[in-house]
Design brief:
8% strand, two-stranded antiparallel sheet, Hypothetical protein af1432, three-stranded antiparallel sheet, single chain, mainly alpha, 546 residues, extended
């Protein structure tokens, strides 16, 4: 909508402006209005126009009418009033900062009141009742000391104490109707087993080129056993994961989830149990959705290994497929929630402390796609996950250069990457670190721009320092592979430090860039081999001071 002759877009019309700096009015105009030192309080409350001369007077004048301008003060008042009313019936308000923030921003004159509903509705799953109260009405549920729902709720009215009984009655009538609807949906859904809902997924499009949600389910059923092998699940866990993959999306077409999408996974678990499924299967169905139910992917890592596998398959399928069809997130646009998917992959692998190649997982998912998946799109999807890992590690307090050094070498394995960053941080803090890094850097700096790998021949050494360096290198090489940890690599490299120092000393008689081409190339080859010790483990050239 557009506002008056100024043509300003608005959701609520602007009626007046007030702006102070100390006791001085800040003169400005917007939408055809000039800032001044008068404001208005509640409608029908005298005086209609309130003159104020300082910000303190402004806050005090509105507080007289019950309007609490400070959002933190308003939040505290709401929490206190709600807790007091819940305690009056022997209950308490569950901790829910998000709901409390939302209600705080919906009212300016908060007055809490206690409502009641029929106990017969408590036979519905708690999650259903809570979802109805929170989503539709922004009510605070009331629970007893064991966390069980009580037949009460607290609603925050935007207004004073007048006619509270009428307001309470109106709210109770509304919630009664909402619960009656939920009860109907629940009973209708239970007329079928969860598996009987499955085929209706063919009517839900996942993405035009990638097919329906049923097509996605079939892909997950094929992908889950592959991931289970990669992650070393037992035969029993794999069977649970396969069955959960078969059922994991079926609740999307139930009446309850169609009405309240926040219940996906929650109702899947409920209906799986009611259908006689193994409780482990039901839990895995719920667990695979957890990142979508929590405010942040960090909040609820998946706990069961079958749930982890199904959730991982679900996210890798989305990442591989949607990047392949050109639907990678751009700027703030992320309609398919791929940032949350990528963060979910990272957080759960870290929480379970499981080594896993995200690259291999994406490749396995890509092989099941109904479209061609280019290497470029797979690389972009992998880098997208690595960036989420980078943010996670930085949020944990690790130095940016240590994170960069590790992710450049092994960013596709979140758990091993985190281990490597922890280990590298400990090495960087050592007193002898600068000398260790400098001697490794000498080998890298001389050879990194050569453009070719020279052949090393120990028979062509002419100086004792070359023989000593080769012997030290051989000892280190025997201890290090591309799968070694940072600790293993650096522990093996430390004995080389003194030897490299001696090799580059003038008295060693070694001139790396010798005029003799054979000598020069052989010495460069030796340094190339030393520099390559860190390949696949850590890229120390990313560190400050390299």
């Amino acid at each position: 909508m557009r506002w008056n002759s100024s043509n300003k877009p608005f959701s609520r019309p602007i009626r007046w402006l007030i702006a102070f700096h100390g006791s001085h009015i800040v003169p400005f105009s917007y939408a055809g209005l000039d800032a001044q030192n008068s404001t208005r309080g509640l409608r029908f409350v005298e005086p209609p126009i309130i003159q104020v001369n300082t910000p303190a007077e402004y806050f005090a004048a509105l507080k007289k009418q019950g309007i609490i301008l400070d959002p933190q003060e308003r939040r505290a008042i709401i929490a206190k009033q709600a807790a007091k009313l819940a305690a009056s019936v022997g209950g308490m308000i569950p901790d829910d900062p998000k709901l409390l923030d939302e209600v705080t921003n919906l009212v300016e004159q908060p007055t809490a009141l206690l409502g009641h509903f029929e106990e017969e509705y408590l036979k519905l799953p708690d999650a259903v009742l809570v979802a109805v109260m929170k989503k539709h009405q922004r009510y605070f549920p009331v629970v007893d000391g064991d966390g069980n729902l009580m037949p009460h709720f607290v609603v925050i009215r935007n207004g004073g104490e007048a006619h509270l009984d009428s307001v309470r009655h109106g709210n109770e009538e509304v919630i009664r109707a909402r619960f009656a609807d939920a009860d109907f949906f629940y009973r209708e859904d239970l007329k079928k087993t969860l598996e009987e809902h499955l085929l209706l997924l063919g009517t839900l499009t996942f993405q035009e080129q990638l097919g329906s949600m049923l097509d996605k389910t079939y892909r997950l059923e094929k992908l889950v056993p592959q991931l289970a092998r990669m992650l070393g699940l037992s035969a029993e866990e794999t069977q649970v994961a396969k069955r959960a993959a078969h059922l994991c999306k079926a609740d999307l077409v139930t009446h309850m989830v169609v009405e309240m999408t926040s219940l996906q996974g929650i109702m899947g678990r409920e209906y799986a149990l009611k259908s006689g499924e193994d409780p482990n299967v039901a839990e895995a169905v719920f667990q695979h959705y957890l990142q979508y139910l929590a405010p942040s992917a960090r909040d609820v890592p998946i706990k069961s290994r079958p749930g982890l596998i199904v959730g991982l398959a679900n996210r890798l399928d989305s990442l591989a497929g949607l990047f392949a069809v050109g639907l990678a997130p751009t700027g703030s646009s992320d309609p398919y929630g791929l940032r949350r998917d990528a963060l979910g992959v990272v957080q759960n692998l870290l929480a379970h402390e499981l080594p896993f190649s995200v690259r291999a997982g994406l490749e396995a998912a890509a092989a099941l796609m109904p479209v061609d998946v280019s290497q470029e799109s797979l690389a972009a999807a992998l880098e997208f996950v690595v960036e989420r890992l980078r943010g996670t590690l930085r949020d944990e307090g690790f130095a940016y250069d240590a994170v960069d050094a590790v992710l450049a070498a092994r960013g596709d394995d979140p758990f091993r990457a985190r281990q490597a960053v922890e280990q590298l941080a400990a090495w960087v803090a050592r007193d002898d670190w600068s000398r260790t890094l400098e001697n490794y850097a000498r080998c890298v700096r001389i050879t990194r721009d050569l453009g070719e790998q020279y052949e090393l021949d120990s028979a062509r050494f002419v100086q004792p320092a070359e023989e000593a360096l080769y012997a030290a290198y051989q000892e280190a090489r025997a201890q290090v592979t591309s799968q070694s940890s940072v600790d293993q690599f650096l522990t093996a490299f430390v004995p080389l430090v003194d030897v490299i120092d001696a090799y580059f000393a003038r008295e060693s008689g070694v001139m790396v860039m010798d005029e003799d081409a054979d000598l020069r190339q052989n010495r460069l080859a030796q340094l190339q081999h030393i520099a390559a010790l860190a390949e696949g483990i850590v890229d120390l050239s990313r560190l400050e001071g390299f």
